[in-house]
Amino acid sequence: MRLSVAVESSLWAFLVSVPAEKQSVAKIGILLVNDNRLAKIEGLKEGLERLGYNEGHNITYQVLNGQNQISELSTIAKRLITDRPDVLVAAGGIEAQTLKELTATMENPIPVVFMGTLSPMSIGLVSDPFHPEGNLTGLNNYHLELTPKRLELLHRLLPEIRHVAVLGDTRVPYFQQTQFNIQETAKELSLTLGMYTVSTHDEVAKAFHQMSKDKIEGVILMPVFFLETSTKQVVELAIQNKLPVFGVYPSDTEEGCLASYGTSYKAQGAQTAQLVHKIIL
To answer: Which of 26, 79, 155, 160 has minimal CB crowding within 10 Å?
Structure first.
């Protein structure tokens, strides 16, 4: 059985302190860490088109992709900033953190909109969602709250499972906080968790080898950019080991996950279009 549940994300309409200069053609600079987040850009463009923005006519997009090379993300972001777009758009949390750091020293910071990240307050993107300061605004995709919920749903689907592996990546800023939250849920459900951190394909293979030794019975994926592009490998190894996998996004079930719980990338991009529109009006 495969199940995919889409969660309605809410838009945080933060007030951006530095509005973009009105121009006949709006320039949008977009930073993303890998190809998998291209679906967010597709949703953003479609959302803006519905609002009256036609690419090449009254809006242009410059998209720079880090191709999973985190160490190069800051250099790439500087190229975007040099071109002085009206709005900088971050595909996710790590891109937003990069743009925040780089624009913090600017005399007139360019507005930054993030297309979905977990708990922007918890990871330091904004200090107060109700009285925002600075040049950042964006979409909260609630992954901090939804990761424990995925464990709960896996337990409901397969109540006989007692030992669950959590696949994550320590390079992600919110790793420790998410780890704490899911451990609390595991205690409530009388489940035993095994935490496995991966950032390369070899580490994924090694993690599954260790899971076999640890007698793991099911796998939960954390929302991290490396696993976004490695779901197929994870599922293939899970099938070999007869382990069900609970994913993050609706598309994960298409890759073979038993179930998923989260908002699609395309939907996050489409919702973000409203915030970009408010800035470039």
So the answer is: 160
